[in-house]
Amino acid sequence: MEYSRTVRAAAVQISPVLFSREGTTEKVLQAIAQAAQAGAQLVVFPETFVPYYPYFSFVQPPVLMGKEHMRLYEEAVLVPGPVTDAVSRAARSYGIVVVLGVNERDGGSLYNTQLVFDADGTLLLKRRKITPTYHERMVWGQGDGAGLTVLETAVGRLGALACWEHYNPLARYALMAQHEQIHCAQFPGSMVGQLFAEQMEVTIRHHALEAGCFVVNATGWLSPEQIAQITPDEKLQKVLMGGCYTAIISPEGVPLCPPITEGEGMAIADLDFSLITKRKRMMDSVGHYARPDLLRLHLNASAWSVMQDNHGAASALPDLLSAEAGSFTTNHRIHEQTAVDYGASVSGSEAG
């Protein structure tokens, strides 16, 4: 791992083209170009940005949201497919790492999926949110432990989580144990108001401090006109405002540029990797500050499938990840085909 480099990162706060996969994808491609023109080597987009976050599920009861749910199915992203092909070409053309949130369709199910493209256009990871939150459970299926992985990319060791996955300390620790240098966080934005923005700030700054890594956080944004499109009820419209905090945080928990809390924009900052060592010299949660004799993480890092034949019986055995003081041993594999490898998620913790 290299700790003597500087990487320029961009976090995009942006509104989707509601009800249009093609329209939103075009905005993604334009933003990638703008980030590259600003010298960015990494660009991060909001949670399930393509085609749009399912805000309808937050303001409609399940019995009434069938029409909008079906429309989301029609506009959802296939992986691989035209959207991933277009983003891959843009990443390769500009030599930029792209982290994009999409609503992924796999047969009859939708998933909250994070895609990581390397600077050569390679789709390195497709991970699914391990547990959709509250209203989201009526929209998305669950992910598995195969997505809790840190990647070697052109900008360093990179990990990603979506929204309230950051409130699962074991999921965060799984990435910390793999020595992530840049953590990419994604939230929907335009929800719950100022309280959500304040909670988000606390959450990402805490992870930066605890992990000793940079956090690049992107949130979505809805215009007043878009909010009215989602619901005509003025009382419900109020819960689709605020809740935006697009920011880049240093390993010392310090914002590296002014956060964006309203409207569209792009937060850009230079990440000096020497700050990782500066922070971890004092407190390394997975190194000299760990106590594996007392506390350890056990992770089922397998991708699971609902079907396998007898010849594949051995592949059903879980891969185990053990994060111990200063060491990280695993036979974890990156599964690029998690579209068909659906199943169990984090199995919990154990005392050692």
Structure write-up:
- The chain is of the alpha/beta class.
- It has 2 domains: 6-282, Nitrilase/N-carbamoyl-D-aminoacid amidohydrolase (4-Layer Sandwich), CATH 3.60.110; 295-351, no CATH class.
- 26% of the residues lie in helices and 25% in strands.
- It is built from 9 helices and 15 strands.
- The protein has helices at residues 21-37, 56-59, 66-75, 82-94, 169-176, 194-211, 224-230, 234-237, 274-282; strands at 6-13, 42-44, 97-106, 109-117, 123-128, 151-153, 156-162, 182-187, 214-219, 247-249, 265-272, 295-300, 320-324, 327-330, 349-351.
- The strands form 3 sheets. It has a 6-stranded mixed sheet with strand order 5-4-3-2-1-11. Strands 6-7-8-9-10 form a 5-stranded mixed sheet, covered by helices on one side. It has a 4-stranded antiparallel sheet with strand order 14-13-12-15, covered by helices on one side.
- Helix 1 (21-37) links the parallel strand 1 and strand 2.
- Helix 1 (21-37) runs parallel beside helix 4.
- The chain is globular.
- Residues 313-352 have low confidence and may be disordered.
- GO terms for molecular function: nitrilase activity.
- InterPro entries: C-N_Hydrolase (IPR003010), C-N_Hydrolase_sf (IPR036526), Nitrilase (IPR023919), Nitrilase/CN_hydratase_CS (IPR000132), Nitrilases_CHs (IPR044149).
- This is Nit6803 family nitriliase.
- Residues 7-273 form the CN hydrolase domain.
- Belongs to the carbon-nitrogen hydrolase superfamily. Nitrilase family.
